[in-house]
Amino acid sequence: QYFGAGRHPFLIHVDGHLAGFAIVEELSRFGNQDAPLDVVEFFVLRKYRRSGVGRTVAETIFSRFRGKWEVRQVSKNVAATAFWRKVIDRFMGGAFEETVYDEERWRGPVQRFDSRAAPQR
To answer: Which residues, in sequence order, are CB contacts of 94 under 8 Å at separation 6+?
Structure first.
């Protein structure tokens, strides 16, 4: 079941127009019950990129779901990795770690952090 318990879908709107979507899941891809929050899907239409929409949505999600996060990117998606590093670094004031996996369960970078420790804005 794509949407069910522990999965939280969001539609992103800008000025009344659909601008993208995001899905948060309360499940670690690495079997880590200590870090159950995962950005499963995150997409912003090209015309809304570089406008701050993605950053705002990501920060809103991290604030709404306080806890330990794993944010994964496919190795080939260099732009996504740059986006997530920048957004997470800003949100967490630099307090995150990144590991690059090359194994069966995941191939690519993963940023880990605890949004409960984010600096107050």
So the answer is: none
